[in-house]
Amino acid sequence: MNIHVFECGPRDGWQNLKQLLPIEEKKRIIDGLVDAGVKLLEATSFVSPKAIPQMADAAELAAIIEQRTAAYISDKGAALGVTCHAQVETELRSGVPYPCAVTLDVERDEALAACIAADLGIGEERQTWRTP
Question: What is the pLDDT, as a whole number, of residue 103?
Fold first, then answer.
């Protein structure tokens, strides 16, 4: 049996803070969650900074999500014996950026493709692999 933990504490928690949390601190928290094994999390939301000032750095956090997701895929590939570089795209779902597609610079590897689909929810139809 697989259990998927979807963490939304950063987004939900940060928007309720009275003081602004610096992007470096948000990144440190996100990195800690990822290092602890959290694969799916909501870190921000694209809303008006006038309404929720804590979300003013949403574009920066979306870029961090893309970078961390790409690093996770490269690390997973290395563990499977596949040296690769991944480029990840995000899309907004209800204002929240989610990894939705990946382009890899290697030929398709079935084990890595399955991990990307299972761990990150990026289906094989949204994975682009270098063709031989």
Answer: 97
DSSP classification of residue 73: H
Model's pTM, two decimal places?
0.77
Structure tokens at 27: 């990144």
Helix (H) or strand (E) holding 23: helix 23-35
Distance (Å, whole) CA 66 – CA 50: 25
Is the pLDDT at 73 greater than 70, yes or no?
yes
What span, in angstroms and rounded, lies between the C-alpha atoms of 21 and 34?
A: 19
H or E segment at 96? strand 96-104
User: 89-108 burial, b if ≥16 CB within 10 A, otherwise e?
Assistant: bbeeeeebbbbbebebeeee
Rg (CA), the chain: 16
Model pLDDT, residue 88: 94
Beta strands in 8-66 (DSSP E): 40-41
On the question of pLDDT at 8 being above 80, the answer is no
- The answer to whether the CB of 76 falls within 8 A of the CB of 115 is yes
In whole angstroms, how far apart are CA 24 and each of 9, 12, 121? Answer: 17, 18, 27
